[in-house]
Amino acid sequence: MQKCRYNGTPIYAFNVKGKNETINYSIEKQWKKAGEMNELICDECEASVIFRCGKVNIPHFAHKSDFQGGNPCSYSDETEEHIEGKKLLLNYMKLLYPDIYAEVRYKLPERKRADLYFKFEDGQELIIEFQRQRLSVSYWDNKREFYKKLGLNNIWFLSGKKEDLEELIREYQLTFWNRMILNDSNNTILYLDVEQKQITIIKKVTVIDNDTNELIYDKLFNRTYGLTDIKILPDGSIECDFNASFNTERDKFVQEYLENKRREAEERERLRIELEEKKKKRLEEQERRRKEEIEKLERLSQVAKQNTYTTDRTDAWSDIGYSRKSYSSDTYKQKPKKSYEYYSRNDDYYKDKVNKAISGYKFGIDNLVRILTQCGSSEYSTIKKFFEAEINKGNIRAENVYREVLRLSGLD
Ligand SMILES: [Zn+2]
C-alpha cells in the first residue's frame, strides 16, 4: 500500500523519493522507526503497518507479519502504474494550486474511496479517478452516480500510452465500456500516459446532415498534451485548445462535405439536363422519321394515283385499239365496236372524264369523243348529265367543251 496515517496525517510511500527520484534517507529512517513504534496506521483497517524501502520493490507500507487475519484488510495491492499515476496527478495539482488540500485514496461515505480528492481554497471539491483501462462498467457507473448524488465534480483518467492510441481508438469501436464512457462524459475520454506525463483527449465528433438527417461524420478526434500544457479546472473541465482545434477540424470537414454535396448536386443536374436533351433529340429524330415516312407514303400514293390515270387511259386506248396518232370521228366510227363491258365504269369515272375535258386536260375531249363514239346510250346520258350540271351552274367553258365533244362525236 502507498498510503497510511502517521500521527493521524496521511503520508504516501512514494514521497520518500525526491524530485530526482532519489531516496530521502532521513524520511526513510523516520518512517521505518515510526513503523516499529506502531505509529503508522493502515488507512483501511487501522492495524499497524511498517514502511518498506528496498532495492527491488517500490517503497510501500505493509501490514506487520504478525497481522492476524481476524480483521481482513481490503487495502489491496496496487500496480506501480496506478501508484505513479496518482502521484503524478497529485503533484501536478499541488503545483497548479499551491494552497490546495489534496489527499490520495480519500475516504468517502458508504466505505468508498476516491483515488484523488482535492479541496480548493474557495471550498470547491474535485475528485480525480485514475483507472486502468478495463475497470468494470458497473463500478464506473455506480461511482459516477455516487459522486453525482454527493454533488462532487469528478474527472476520470484511464491509463493509456500515446503509442497505443490506435488500439485505444479501435477499442472504442469494439468495447461497450469505451462507448459507454464516451456517451456519458460529454463524448470525451481522457487517457493518462504516466511514463510520458502526457494526457490524450479523445472526443467523438459527430455531424448530422440537417437536410437528410443522416449521420455524415462519426470520428474520434484525439490530441495529446503534456500534462503541464493543460489546466484541470476545479469543476473538472480541462483548459486547453482541444475544443478549438477539434471545432476547426469538424468545421473543415463540414465545409468539405457541403462543397462536395454542392458539386454532386451540380453534377446530377448536369446529367439530368444531358439526359433530357438526349431524350428530346431522340423524340425529334423519331418525329422526323415519322414525317419522312408519311411523306414517302404520300409520294407513293401520288405515284400510284398517277399510275392509275395512265393505266386507265392506256388500258382504255389499247382496249379499243386506238392510236393517238390518227383519230377522227371517222376513225372512231370505222373501228369495230367492242363491248363496253370491258371498260364499264361507274358515274365517278365519267364525271372525272367530263371534269378533265372541261378543265382542259390534255386528252380530255378526245377521251369523251372516244367513249361517245364507241359506247351506248347510257354512257351518253351519263356524260350529258354531268355536262348539263356544269352548264346549269353557268359554266360557259363546260358548254363550249360539250358542244365540241358532240360535234367531234358526230352527235350534234
Ligand atoms: Zn489494513
Unreliable stretches covering 5 or more consecutive residues: 311-319, 321-327, 338-343
Could you tell me the strand content as a percent range? 15-25%
Computed over alpha carbons, the radius of gyration is: 59 Å
| Helix and strand sequence | EEHEEEHEEEHEHHEEEEEHHHHHH
Q: Roughly how many Å apart are the termini?
A: 153 Å
The bound ligands are: zinc ion
Largest sheet, order of strands side by side?
6-7-8-9-10-11-12
Describe it.
This protein is α+β, with helices and mostly antiparallel strands and 412 residues long. It folds into 2 domains: 3-236, no CATH class; 320-409, no CATH class. 48% of the residues lie in helices and 20% in strands. It contains 11 helices and 14 strands. The chain has helices spanning 25-36, 80-96, 137-150, 165-174, 176-183, 242-319, 329-334, 347-358, 364-374, 377-392, 396-409; strands at residues 3-6, 9-12, 40-42, 49-52, 60-63, 101-108, 112-119, 125-131, 153-159, 188-193, 198-209, 214-226, 231-232, 238-239. The strands form 4 sheets. A 7-stranded mixed sheet has the order 6-7-8-9-10-11-12, with helices on both faces. Strands 2-1-3 form a 3-stranded antiparallel sheet. It starts with a strand and ends with a helix. The model is unreliable at 311-319, 321-327 and 338-343 (pLDDT under 50). It binds zinc ion. Residues 42, 44-45, 47, 63, 73, 75 line the site of zinc ion (ZN).
